[in-house]
Amino acid sequence: MIIQNKISSFVDKQRLFFQTNQTKNIGFRIDKLTALEQSIEEHKDVIIQALKADLHKPGFEGYFEIMGVLGEIKHTLQNLKTWMKPQKIATPFHQFLSSARVYSEPLGVVLIIGPWNYPINLMFTPLVSAIASGNCAILKPSELASHTSSVIADIMQKTFDSSFITVIEGGVETSKEILSEKFDHIFFTGGTEVGKIVMSAAAQHLTPVTLELGGKSPCIVDNDIHLEYTAKRIVWGKFSNAGQTCTAPDYLLVNRQIKKELLDQIKNQIQNFYGDQPANSHSYARIINNRHFYRLSELLKAGEIIVGGDTDLENLYIAPTVIDQVSWQDKVMQEEIFGPILPVLEYTHLSEAIDLVNQQPKPLALYFFSKNKQNQEWVLQSTASGGVCINDTLMHLTVPALPFGGVGASGFGRYHGKSGFDTFSYQRAVLNKSFLLDLKWRYPPYQTKSKK
Ligand code: NAD
């Protein structure tokens, strides 16, 4: 109850601040985005240390996470003035001497709930959009990345007044209590089951939600590829952050003709990236906790392990692993893997791969490797996914002007760049009439000639 009162008082305080209209001012928004940018720059080392403590995240991968946020801020600062400009709308003839515009207005007090896998990027990137759109925000980082959660709280407390931005740390119970409050938007990144809980809590207040969820993102490999680059890009996308990436290629669907060469090349690249003993590599992360370690260990009990397979509970280590000869009945193919395990399936004709993908829930990302333009177009035309990256993995996320989000089971709503600005705004339609002319025909008593 004490916590609940505290949460209510944060929300009330932010609502009062929002009503002062200060956040609507472009100068205010630019100042706050600049302050966020500076603060992140100043805390880079602390952030990287916290990510290391939570996930054993390699320094470079932590840096990559931070650069994503800084890139988002830069892109937003470059475009904010244009995005905020009211859009002129053409009016029909009978509205002669009037003007119509659409204004992008802030929603008010928004809630951002984040996951543990990219705890900095997935908390601060939506925050950039929320600030750019003129909102106040309450942030709830994941308790599973506890070091990063407290660094986020510390940075926000030093950078912003809590009547504008505040962090509430805590686990599931705290999250539930926060969700019982009324917000003007909830932006959730996490798993599908919790997404349903968030959506039903939001429904109590008719609060709009953005759900950034996960799923099994397929990686289809045609036989017409650059073998070495394909293998490198797949291995990097799959095993960065020890596979704990929402858009990681979940499984491989490879053309039978090229399968052996590709798997050999994947083996080589794993060795090149992480050495003979990936457990000793400073470039390889760890599993977040025991629960996920046990869950992933169960998934190893399928098919034939052709690379890796070693585990070490004490250090939460699971080697980069490739499993051949799996079937759709294996557990590893029935749930989102979210770890360093790459199952391999093969196909003879591309139509088979497309059919298999279409039998699954719509994924967050789809990867297709092929030089063949017709095949690229075919895959694009006949599948659905939140995003697509052709001939690479994950990199589509690094283009700030490309909308990011899911479809179907992988979520709904978009952010990054202008899409994020739109997500945290509402479109206010305004018609402005002149007093110079007043057409009589619309007023009673209606005449037959009015119909004309
Ligand atoms: P999660 O759903 O378990 O937790 C996310 C957040 O929800 C955390 O802050 C947690 O405290 C809170 N939460 C957990 N249970 C709750 C409950 N019962 N009620 C209210 N709040 C609750 O997700 P996770 O384990 O942190 O992240 C992994 C999942 O997130 C994967 O499925 C992954 O694909 C997905 N993900 C998606 C994206 C994306 O951008 N689409 C990015 C990262 C992760």
Walk me through the structure.
- With 452 residues, this protein is an alpha/beta fold.
- The protein has two domains: 2-213 and 406-431, Aldehyde Dehydrogenase, Chain A, domain 1; 218-398, Aldehyde Dehydrogenase, Chain A, domain 2.
- 41% of the residues lie in helices and 19% in strands.
- It contains 14 helices and 18 strands.
- The protein has a seven-stranded mixed sheet, sandwiched between helices.
- β11 (311-312) and β12 (317-318) form a beta hairpin.
- α2 (26-42) packs antiparallel against α4, α5 crosses α14 and α9 crosses α10 (256-274).
- It is globular and about 85 Å long.
- The N and C termini lie far apart (65 Å).
- The model has no long low-confidence stretch (mean pLDDT 96).
- Bound molecules: nicotinamide-adenine-dinucleotide.
- Nicotinamide-adenine-dinucleotide binds at residues 113-117, 122, 140, 142-143, 171-172, 175-176, 179, 189-191, 194, 197, 212-214, 246, 336, 338, 364, 406, 411.
The spatial strand order of the largest sheet comes to 10-13-14-9-8-15-16
Count of DSSP H/I helices: 14
The CATH H-level homologous superfamily of the largest domain = Aldehyde Dehydrogenase, Chain A, domain 1
Separation, N- and C-terminal Cα atoms:
65 Å
Total individual domains: 2
Give the radius of gyration: 25 Å
DSSP, total strands: 18
List all distinct small molecules, including ions and cofactors, that are bound in this structure.
nicotinamide-adenine-dinucleotide
Largest sheet: 7 strands, mixed
Mean pLDDT: 96
The CATH class name of the largest domain reads: Alpha Beta
